[in-house]
């Protein structure tokens, strides 16, 4: 093992994101990421399985946050209220990393394989939310619909947040998008 | 070119689905599919690029049906009413093929690569619906939300339809699921 480096994981993420934006994801090597961060490739592999992992390491933590929030919602909350609480937790976690999120989004949008990976992560998030709702006693199809609707709100709100020149927080935009979905479905 | 075979495409689809259910998707070869259909591998490749294509050839036609239905909805229809009309058209197309749909679903559920491919097709369908709504003058985020909500309804209703021992039609279950989504979002 090499010597301990302060905040190696954060420096590697930062360096990777810079290079992905500058050169494109495919054109960037792990050696270049490590060099930009002032670390070795060996250190890189202590934190990430590969260069794709830098972009998706946060997804598992995001899922944990969402599910923990869902589970701490009072039993009296409706399925969509519980989902909204989970989205609030996601907004709190991601909200502090707008610049990172914005760059990550542009890197993923530019690469078909990464877009597919992101779809899979979102489907996994939806499945975890639905399972969490079923554990709260919500019926099967209600749980699936509420979870899918929640992920739809999450995606649309997230894209607006990273895409718009706005100072408004992600949580505010998520709540707005949920209201928007409510208005859309009411008019059908 | 070999001689013309009546309904070769349908016979190949049928034979492929039988083998995928019996042996699993990965264990089935194109040669076996052709043999089961009483045709040659050469004929198979005249209709399908590969054995995966048998499962997804319908997706492009489904997208065309959905978009055509969306576009023929009166301009006065709300975004979700237009989406509901598109879902009705999907139900009409898929509704006659319940047994095929049921087997296809079980084959896809058993294979990670096929599940990912299905996710991508669903995302493409959602993107096409959103683009269709924007062409009707629906604002960007409303179009995305309505399309994603529509696909959520489609997926949940489709799973109920193939999974439940029911004589009810897919269109009926889709309308019910849309009402269910309306009730869920209203209670948030």
UniProtKB/TrEMBL annotation, chains A, B:
InterPro entries: DNA-bd_HTH_TetR-type_CS, Homeodomain-like_sf, HTH-type_TetR-like_transc_reg, HTH_TetR, MftR_C
Start and end residues of each HTH tetR-type domain: 6-66
Superkingdom of source: Bacteria
GO molecular function annotation: DNA-binding transcription factor activity; transcription cis-regulatory region binding
Pfam families membership: TetR_C_14, TetR_N
Keyword tags: DNA-binding, Transcription, Transcription regulation
Residues within the DNA-binding region(s): 29-48
Protein's name according to its UniProt entry: TetR family transcriptional regulator
